TrEMBL record:
<dbReference type="Pfam" id="PF13419">
    <property type="entry name" value="HAD_2"/>
</dbReference>
<dbReference type="InterPro" id="IPR023214">
    <property type="entry name" value="HAD_sf"/>
</dbReference>
<dbReference type="InterPro" id="IPR036412">
    <property type="entry name" value="HAD-like_sf"/>
</dbReference>
<dbReference type="InterPro" id="IPR010237">
    <property type="entry name" value="Pyr-5-nucltdase"/>
</dbReference>
<dbReference type="InterPro" id="IPR006439">
    <property type="entry name" value="HAD-SF_hydro_IA"/>
</dbReference>
<dbReference type="InterPro" id="IPR041492">
    <property type="entry name" value="HAD_2"/>
</dbReference>
<protein>
    <submittedName>
        <fullName>Uncharacterized protein</fullName>
    </submittedName>
</protein>
Amino acid sequence: MPPMVPPTQLLQPLTTSCTLIERLLVADFGLPRKLFLNFQFSFCCFASCWSTPCPCTMQFICLKQIDPTSTFSFPPPPPALFFASHKLSVSNPLILQHSIRFNLEMKMEFEGRFGQAQRQKYDCLLFDLDDTLYPVSAGLAAGVLKNIKDYMVEKLGIDAEKIPELCNLLYKNYGTTMAGIRAIGYDFDYDEYHSFVHGRLPYENLKPDPVLRTLLLSLPIRKVIFTNADKIHAAKVLNKLGLEDCFEGIICFETLNPIHKTVASDDEDDIEFVGSTTQSSANNNNNNITSEIFDIIGHFSKSNSTSELPKTPIVCKPSEDAIEKALKIANINPQRTLFFEDSLRNIQSGKRVGLDTVLVGTSHRCKGADYALESMHNIKEAIPELWEADNKVSDGGYNSGKVKIVETSVTA
């Protein structure tokens, strides 16, 4: 049996005790030393005799002032939340036992800084629909463009010769042709427009995609669709792909444009879920043409034009305002969301509002894209971390409440 050591030599100053505690928390458990220095402890030190010779064991009893159901634990996570033991390389008949009382400040400091690293990076995946969940080779995009041009000629009476240049200017300056047509002064029924543009698409080209379905269902993360298209089109596409039950909800045209506005507005009260008491309708009884049509072609043909482009009453991507409103409606935290898109403009807008982004349709990662996928089928190889941890809902004020089937507009 080792010789008895006087208790006065064992009950060292608290500074020495802090050194031992630091050794355990910082060196052995990996707690950042900067955090350790910010923690406040109160110690109760006492000595007692061990009945038989054995190595001395230093036990740290963590009396946490937090809910016992909390997931707070030391990294790497020990099997127990409240107790951690550490054997020292010394042998003596006494055990020095420190009771460490973690106050609320420690809990907040640890969970706020270190706990974040233990949590999965993303708690929501936001997907565009057309040419993202299926390839552009399906031919729907070409059909949409043709139908838009036909609508402009047949329903709005626009000169067919002006259509190519007009469509290019409207899409370039307003994000979608539909938003541009409304901006320059044409009025029309939104449901009729979507029915004309999407109603004649070759949906038969879309086939069930069991590979993508399996990948999506295996992702333990909230998944939401965000499209500029109308709700009928979105539902048809998801049904054809066999993905209708893979997403929590759909943010679409009707989501961000629940009422037929005749002028641009920033009134957030106008933004509601589809299915609310406010319905889209053209109640102004106007014809397709308002009092004056803005000559956008003439505007850009003048080198010294000082007039401003009119605003559109339609809310849609790539407008940053549209993306921010969509995130708010669906209760999505942009800092913990990965945004999948085939449009580089939409990717860059998403990046500016704080989203991490995935450009779909190419393996070349362009400016604004954090990842690039040739196809959605490559998602697991390109972003394996999405499967590496169980999903944990963020506690930063963004909950994963259900999103009603809601809506926005394609290149339309």
